[in-house]
Known about the structure:
Layout: E1 10-12, H1 15-27, E2 32-37, H2 43-55, E3 58-63, H3 83-93, E4 97-99, H4 103-106, H5 125-128, H6 132-146, E5 151-155, H7 159-171, E6 177-181, H8 201-222, H9 228-241, E7 246-254, E8 268-276, E9 279-287
Parallel strand pairs: 1-4, 2-3, 2-5, 3-4, 5-6
Antiparallel strand pairs: 7-8, 8-9
This protein binds adenosine monophosphate.
Adenosine monophosphate binds next to helix 2 and strand 5.
Amino acid sequence: MSELETISMHVITSAEEICAVVLAAKSSGQSVGFVPTMGALHEGHLSLVDASLAECDLTVVSIFVNPTQFSPEEDLEKYPRPLQRDLQLLTERGCEIVFVPTAAEMYPEGVESTVEVGSVASPFEGASRPHHFQGVATVVSKLFQVVPADRAYFGRKDYQQALVVVQLIEDFNLPITMRVCPIVREPDGLAMSSRNTYLRPEQRQQASALWQSLRIAEQAHAAGETDVAAIKKKMMQHLNSAGIENVDYIAFVTDGTVQEVETVAGPTVVAIAARLGKSRLIDNHTIG
Ligand code: AMP
């Protein structure tokens, strides 16, 4: 018996079949929510599932570790894939339909087209991870075709990714409504992430300094500081004192954009990416 057959829920591996299920539900008047994930589910993912279950008649979750958004030196091979556990969590949550395609189902031989998103994909994550957003935009476009849902649920944890998907939906007139849900954190503030499992115990302790540095930015602004360079300096001092030296970027952008600001003059997203050993963590927080 295969791993998938041991779970009593509707696990679909065929693009054609999931599309038929979603279209049938819609034609019978049901609203459909879609939560794309790469699996190794945690409460961050499950909060998106909850949001969809609360708002839609039918919720489809996809689990697909998309190879095209990883560059060759990244963690595609070792990315966690605890499928049985994921399906169990989704069953407990009340989600009945899970789309788990193989790489060959999503990218059959001969596929050549890719989707390039414009300037929103260039800085920050786009600069640190070339081709990452091309892979994301391509797989999201394909997933939206095969799961033609009414609403898609993404997390604000991946702030720039959410902007990329919004751009994609607008530019291609995709008939789906985007919902961006709040970041779910561990008790010490670390943003939940499937990649947190890579952290060794001492790195896991250090990792909470990312959230602390975002809170430092918030507190500095609340105390009257508006100069971004001065706030960044405080954040960097905190990160360094926690032993985090390898900071990819700290960026202050106008909320809803990737436009950097030098002064905090309104709702501003502070985004950060840092490496702890071989793990790369991202987080963000809105201030102002
Ligand atoms: P991933 O499996 O990492 O591709 O993430 C799937 C979705 O879950 C994306 O929309 C993420 O932004 C979202 N997500 C991941 N971590 C969190 C979190 N801690 N809080 C809220 N959403 C999250």
